[in-house]
Structure formats: C-alpha cells, structure tokens
Amino acid sequence: MAGGVIVVSGGRDYHGGITAFVVVACLVAAMGGLIFGYDLGISGGVTSMEDFLKRFFPSVHRKMSDETGKENEYCKFDSQLLTLFTSSLYLAALIASFFASIVTRSYGRKISMLSGGLVFFAGAVLNGAATNIEMLIVGRLLLGVGVGFANQSVPLYLSEMAPAKIRGALNIGFQMAITIGILMANFVNYGTSQIKGGWGWRVSLGLAAVPAAMLIVGSVFLPDTPNSILERGNPEKAKQMLRRVRGTSNVEEEFQDLVDACEAAKQVDNPWKKIMMPKYRPQLVICTLVPFFQQLTGINVIMFYAPVLFKTLGFGDDASLISAAITGVVNVLATIVSIVSVDKFGRKILFLEGGFQMIICQVAVAIMIGLNFGLSGEGLLTKAEANLLLVLICGYVAAFAWSWGPLGWLVPSEICPLEIRSAGQAINVSVNMFFTFIIAQIFLTMLCHLKFGLFFLFAGFVIIMTVFIHFFLPETKNVPIEEMNRVWKAHWFWKRYVTDEDVIGKDQDSASSSHANDVV
After folding, report:
1. Looking at residues 205-216, what average pLDDT do you find?
2. pTM of the prediction?
3. How far apart are CA 10 and CA 52, in angstroms?
4. pLDDT at 187 exceeding the cut of 50
5. For the chain, give me the number of helices (H) and strands (E)?
6. Listed residue (409, 428, 438) closest to 88, CA to CA
7. 178 to each of 94, 289, 358, how far by Cα in Å?
8. Using an 8 Å Cβ cutoff, are 339 and 172 in contact?
9. CA–CA separation, 494 vs 498, rounded Å?
10. Of 146-160, 295-309, 361-375, which range is least confident?
11. What is the mean pLDDT of residues 279-293?
12. 79 near 444, Cβ under 8 Å?
C-alpha cells in the first residue's frame, strides 16, 4: 500500500557495540558543521551592521537610514550586490562539491575534511582583512570551497563510522554543530556590534578562522573509516579499524558485507554514470529532492537574514540581533530533540511532524505580517505583536531543527551503496548549495515584490514535500548502511527498481533460513 514501509527488524545485527573511540571520532568529525553554521549565522548579522553597509554597500545604507517614514519596509535591503556577497559562498560550494567527491573517494574522507578546513581558514582571513568588495567576494568564494568539501565528507564519515543502532544520533552531530555555529555567530554579532570605531564586522568575519582551525586540527588526528580504507585497497588495515570501531574482534559478518560492497564499487569506473542507472533510481531521487525541498522550507533565509528580517519588521538594531540569537538557541535545543528521538521513533515521523508544524507557523507569520504591513510595506509592530512574531518564527525554527535540518543531511548520506556513495553525496551537497544560492540571491527581491505572500509560498512548498515524504520515503532507522537495498526492495514504489541480486546479505540470509528449516 502507499505510504512507505517500516522495517521492523531493522536488518541484521552485527557484533560489537558503541565504543568511546567511535563516539569521540564522530564528535570531532561533526565539527565540520561548525564552519557552515558559523557562516550562516554571521552573514546576516554583518549585513545589518551600519559600518559594514556604509563601507561596502552605501546605497543599502542610505535606504536603511531613510527617516521619512515612506520607505517600503519590504524593500529597504533589496540589493543584488548585497545578496551576491551572501550567496557567492553557496555557488562556490556547489562547484567544489564535485571536486570534493573525487578527493573523498580517492584519498579518503579525512583528507577531504582537512582540505575544506584549510581553504575555509584562508577565506576567513581574507574576509577579516577586506578593504574592498572584490576581497570580500573572493574570501566568500574560498569559504564556499571549504564548505563544499566539509559538507561532502563529514556526513559520509559519520554514517560509515557509526553503528546502525545510533547512526542517526551520531550523524545528526553534524547538524548539531551547524546549529551551534549559528548560535556562536549570533552572539559574536551582538558583541561586535557594540564595538566603537567601525571595525566590529572585521572581528565577526575573521573569527570564522576559529572553527576552521578546529576542523583542521581534528582532521589531522581522525582515523579514516573502514569503508574508505577498504575502498582504497587496504583490507587488513580496514578490518583492524573495524575491530577498533566496533570494540570486538568478531567483525567477520560486517566486514564481509563491506567487502561485497567494495567489490561492487570496484566494478564502477564512473559513479556518475552508474547512479543514473534504473537500479539506483531511489537513491538518485532522494539525494536530489531531499536537499531541494530542504531549501524550499525557507529556513536559510530565516537563519542568515534573521537580523535583517527582524530589522525590516521594525525591531531595533540590538533587538534584531538579540531576536536572531533567541532563534539560534531554539535551533540548538530542538536539534537535541532530534538526536534523542531519531533512532527511537525513526526518520519519517520527524519529517512529517516537522512539516505540519512549519506549515502552521509560516501561515501564521504571513497573516500577521500581512495584517500589519499590508501591500504597501508601511506599518509598525506593537511590542506584543513583535513578541508573538518571534514566538511563531521560533516554532518554525524548532520544527525544522528536529526534522528537515538534520534529516536532510542524514538520509542522503545513509542510503547509497559504496559504489555510488561519493556521487550521491556530491549530488546532495550540490543541489543543497545551488538552491541555497538561488534563494539567498533572490530572497530580498522576493520579499520586496511578494511581500507577506513569500511566507505563503514557502508554506505551499512544505505541504508538497510533506506529501512526498509520506508516500516515497521508507523508514531507514537501525538498518546497516550496506544493507539499505533491503528497504528499497520492500517499498511499495521503489521495489520495481531493485532486484534480488542488489540486496547485500541475501545469500547469507538464505543459507541461514535453509539451515533453520533443516533443523526443524
């Protein structure tokens, strides 16, 4: 029947348990999310600082400083150059993700993370020292390359390292790091906005080097995943690492599944051509549509334009930054909810609940802004109305943070077999970055022209994606990553693309079943 499938058994149980080694390794790797989160949070705050706007975007500063009372509140920050500063990072990340895919497959996940950290560090230094718009844009492009490499490799690393039973929780460590990065950036922005002398924005941009340095140091000491070591032709080293990761010497069953997956991967010269084959249609569709839908929730415009948005809606300078910090705290706390619940209740229920909550909050925000600012864009919010608006936006952020935020990275990283895993993750990152770029580039213009209707538009997209999840995403909790084809084979729609031969472990299970029948 329609609506997907819940795998009750969760696939086979491998020997071994949850070791301190794998938890620490995953926590260190998850720091790759800090660089992405810090940038998301810092950009909107910096672009609402008067000294920064006065120096690099004087036309926006003049519109913002209009005291005639006739300035359209929806349009005061509408500037293509300003949005190019914000969105250029995501265009660079999109392109970099394809190169990162090659590095990740050929040299391992940790080398890709290290490369991302080094390039991001260089971009942070350049942005902090910028004296003209050209330096700013080049710095942003370098930051984008760093994000592209980190976002390509970190989710893969986490999914491959983690035991199936807690893969969701450990993988969401990446999203947790993103939310912590956003929160750190919000507080940094508030602190640097108080600096007299007009150089606070330099501190905000330059401090991006701190999470980059953390990623660099962490990457140097991280072990590579057994999957990646095996993929590069070192079976004994891979088995030794698997024993260390699982905390047991009895890893033969899991290691054999890794070997089977690796042998299949070796037959693939071009994973990009391979992923287009019908047998990989479920992975291609999910790795494309999940990041596409994730951006159409409108979350990133809330995150990196939060100070600008709150300022547009009549919050004062400090109030807009404080309000953005409040949403950052909510973001972190709600992500913890996801970490605790994702391996207990599953991915699908979080997707669906989060979708319903986002729809309600977005519609309420649209109605409230429409009633106060209408089509003219002229109006004011009372203190009570401003507080209610903040509560609604926090409700929306919370819903995203325990659903589409972490699961948008978790699900694509755990569903692909080894032979197409790097290509699938590259598609996930590139689609995510492409639509982040598009929405970042056009958001302020859309706000100017669609006005409060923009939030109705995002709510409409959330309705569509929630229906998609209900019918086409099977539950993947507790399923070993190399056995994921079992899930597709059992799904009402995707089973037409997956043959019995595509299911790793089928022969072993058949042999076990035959032996059991003989015993009976």
Report:
1. 94
2. 0.78
3. 53
4. yes
5. 25, 0
6. 438
7. 18, 21, 20
8. yes
9. 7
10. 295-309
11. 95
12. yes
